[in-house]
Design goal:
heterodimer, A: 91 residues, mainly alpha, 4 helices, globular, B: 251 residues, alpha/beta, Glycerol-3-phosphate (1)-acyltransferase, 7-stranded mixed beta sheet, 7 strands, 47% helix
């Protein structure tokens, strides 16, 4: 699963669940400050990511370090390498 | 000048507050014998009358408040989202004339005199209550045919620019399947400012918009989607209201 596929999948969650315009979803965007997600919205985001990628994030300490959309892409790029089955779940 | 202005309006308001609450003291004490939900409902009615008289009669000495009702007269119980530039908003929300409970951070409930009244009225302490308690109390208020008045920015902005919204109240609207109204208030950003000084007296403009019907709200996939819809709508409306006020100032 390459980076482009990950970016597309992550962005689809923001478009479907938060009705964001895809054009505003760029890696440098800060999730709280720029996209205006608060703590409750972050829960929705994590639930969406878990459902889409089919993995649990609750116990993953790295999710707490996510600040920008680029950090989300990086995290899932790393997870996709560790769990190659993610690619099948997305298809 | 700032000091004089502040002394003038606070003196008149405090004096008026004493007169009003002394005048209704006996009925208020009698109301304390009622069961809790009914008691809170009646105290909120007294607060509505107090707020209406304050802004229509007492503050009229100092500035003018222009109000436009664009709801088409709809008053179905729901959530009223208000932008929050100044502490005067807590009084100004009485202008549309509906009875309701406001959501507050903990500190206004600890104010002398007004704090105990707000607590008796069952105002929703959103920073100290958990989600379940807030939801149950919101349900109680709505079942009595009243509104929940909420400031999703969380704190005063003291600026024409709105702070980002919190999602909690929009989650409650979706869960309780109630409409969302929007009350836009412009012109009062320094009346008073965050240090409670009246830096100016100028006209205030208020517009009561909505409601976004419950069916439309249910179509939103998340509370975030709903809050951003409301945020954008209010941002546009406030920009036009501020432009009108600026234009009038130049005339």
């Amino acid at each position: 699963m390459d980076r482009n596929e990950i970016v597309k999948t992550v962005n689809s969650i923001f478009v479907e669940r938060f009705e964001m315009d895809e054009s505003e979803l760029t890696p440098e965007k800060k999730i709280i400050e720029d996209l205006q997600l608060d703590s409750l919205d972050l829960v929705d985001m994590i639930v969406g990511l878990q459902q889409k990628f089919g993995i649990m994030l609750r116990d993953n300490p790295e999710i707490r370090n996510v600040r920008t959309l680029g950090d989300v892409y990086d995290l899932f790029e790393k997870l996709a390498k560790e769990h190659p089955e993610i690619a099948d779940k997305i298809k | 000048m700032v000091l004089l202005r502040s002394i003038a309006i606070y003196s008149v308001t405090v004096l008026w507050m004493l007169v009003f609450w002394l005048a209704v003291l006996l009925p208020v004490l009698a109301v304390m014998l009622l069961p809790a939900p009914r008691r809170r409902h009646v105290i909120r009615f007294f607060l509505l009358v107090f707020g209406q008289l304050t802004i229509r009669c007492v503050w009229r000495i100092f500035f003018r408040i222009r109000f436009e009702d664009r709801t088409g007269g709809v008053r179905e119980p729901g959530i009223v989202v208000v932008n929050h530039r100044s502490a005067s908003d807590a009084f100004l929300v009485a202008r549309p004339g509906f009875c309701g409970a406001q959501t507050v951070n903990g500190w206004p409930l600890r104010l002398p005199f007004l704090g105990p009244v707000a607590r008796a009225a069952g105002y929703l302490n959103v920073t100290e209550w958990d989600y379940g308690t807030t939801l149950a109390r919101a349900r109680e208020v709505l079942s009595l045919g009243e509104m929940i008045v909420s400031y999703p920015e969380g704190t005063r902005s003291e600026s024409p620019r709105m702070n980002p919204f919190h999602s909690g109240i929009f989650r409650i609207a979706m869960e309780l399947k109630v409409p969302v109204y929007m009350l836009c208030i412009a012109g009062n950003q320094y009346m008073p400012d965050r240090k409670f000084r009246f830096r100016e007296f100028q006209d205030i403009s208020m517009r009561f918009l909505g409601p976004l019907p419950a069916e439309e709200i249910q179509k939103c996939p998340t509370a975030y989607a709903l809050k951003m819809k409301v945020f954008r709508r209010m941002t546009d409306e406030l920009a036009s209201m501020d432009a009108e006020l600026d234009h009038e100032k130049t005339l």
